[in-house]
Amino acid sequence: MFFSTGNKLTIPNMHLSEQEIIRREKLEKLLALGIDPYPPEAFPVSIHAAHLKEFFEEDAEGKPLNFQEVSLAGRLMSFRVMGKASFAELQDSSGRIQLYISRDDIAPGEDKTLYNEVFKKLLDLGDFIGVQGYAFRTQVGEITVHVTGLKLLAKSLRPLPVVKRDEEGHIFDAFTDTEERYRMRYVDLAVNPHVKETFIKRTKMVSAIRRFLNERGGLEVDTPVLQSIPGGAAARPFITHHNALDVPFYLRIANELYLKRLIVGGFDWVYEFSRNFRNEGMDRTHNPEFTILEFYVAYKDYFWMMDTTEALLEQAAMETCGTTDVQVGDKIINFKAPYRRVSIYDAIKEHTGEDVSGMDEAALRTLCKKLHIETDDSMGRGKLIDEIFGETAERHFIQPTFITDYPVEMSPLTKKHRDKPGLVERFELMINGKEVANAYTELNDPIDQRERFEEQVKLMERGDDEAMFIDHDFLRALEYGMPPTSGIGIGIDRLAMLLCNQHTIQEVLFFPQMRPEKFEE
RNA sequence: GAUCUCGUAGCUCAGCUGGUAGAGCACUUGACUUUUAAUCAAGGUGUCCUGGGUUCGAAUCCCAGCGGGAUCACCA
Predict the structure, then answer these.
(1) Contact A502/A198 with Cβ under 8 angstroms?
(2) Euclidean distance between the first and final Cα of chain A, in Å?
(3) What is the pTM of this model?
(4) Exposure winner among A43, A253, A288, A451, fewest CB in 10 A?
(5) A43-52 pLDDT, tens digit each
(6) CA of A298 to C1' of B55 (A)
(7) DSSP letters along A13-30, please?
(8) Nearest nt to A505, CA vs C1'?
(9) How far is the CA of A40 from the C1' of B75 (A)?
(10) Which nucleotides of B are covered by protein (CB under 7 A)?
């Protein structure tokens, strides 16, 4: 049921707090005064708060030299009424600026209603207003807009949490409840400036990456989200149904196989910021939908990809944070290229003292037992090595490190290593103990690819529910011929967490997944 | 999915071994023409998450449920 101005000021069965009732009464009074609380016409904004404060100029005597005719719009965020004059704070998209409002300036004639009634009584914190006026500096030194005209642009019917700050920047009564913040991100953004900064930073990071790729000839593309075979990764998919075709479709878990088809088609470098969906657990590093940047470049190998990845991340850090030494929790991560390169066998040796390179499946199981790592029968040699690395070594790679040359069993889309038997040309990039990227020299031999898919089928039969499905059309594409190619997937949310110094994925997603809220009707 | 933990006013929170609800800010009324966590005077806000139970009596104890967070499992 929608609220409409006029007579239905309350909604039946809706619990309104005292403050909400008062705001609706104010709305009625505004209407009675002939003031439209939601006027349709555009408001001419001439400047933003931050810009005015940054570029305001005055002469030696303190006489303002510019911004003598400005108009701004935003939310009213604080009020300090002192009789016939008041101070208020206006918050626009750039930040806050103080307003000075004197009765006789906004209501110069006999009728003081605009000040005494409308401004002092009928406006609330959170209302959108537009003001005209001129800039000056108060006795206390605050750059302020002396308001000569004021207009209500949109009434707010719910009280925003009021967050206060003292001179030292201490915050009082912060709006901190994570559930409320995520469910009502609009409120979070309105009252918590640092939240907004995080998201601006994330967008900056994405722009920096996009620019890097475009400058080098990357072509941004879109590929299907609805896929009939959820390929390119190993994960439980979301399933949906197409009515007209009467067939199931899966929301993509990766876009890898589609980007490779485009390389087959003759593009040299394609990339996509891919929203992927995985029907798995949620926690502070996992959201059911998340973003991976994947890109594929023809005539390259994984060595080239390492060079490119470190250059990309160095630039992304520089443009996002203004430095390559990024504070992450209590650590400084140095994004400056080059990054250390360690084979997975050496990484395991480094942290366990064990050389697993020559071990067969039985030996690996024995080692797992010794290291107190749980295993099950579905695990093959590759999976066991991956498990050992994950349990013993992964968390120790704080500074960006390429872990290279994985066992062939766990990399069905990767080309076999040019001179290390049993391994593939693959690397994962570890930062702050977490995987941030995964890249290969891509497997482009269709015969080998078919065999690898068949290996996956065997793993699946053995009980590995992460094994990949065979995508016959993808095999057909490879049979037409794919040039030697290197490809990578970079976890954009994970990278954003690092560059924004946030330790949960929810803090870098505007609307993280939550259990749906129940509204009572 | 398992374990632990939290849920009290618009916001942040207090509320003891059970005795019938509190503070600051916000809000309402009034004063104040350069304030800034404005100040001063006055006012009282509530499904104590929901439903059961124990009890003369439950925000408090017990059980179940709902929602959040943390840890674990799965995964990126």
Answers:
(1) yes
(2) 9
(3) 0.92
(4) A451
(5) 999 999 999 9
(6) 78
(7) T----HHHHHHHHHHHHH
(8) B76
(9) 49
(10) 1, 9-13, 24-39, 45-47, 66-76
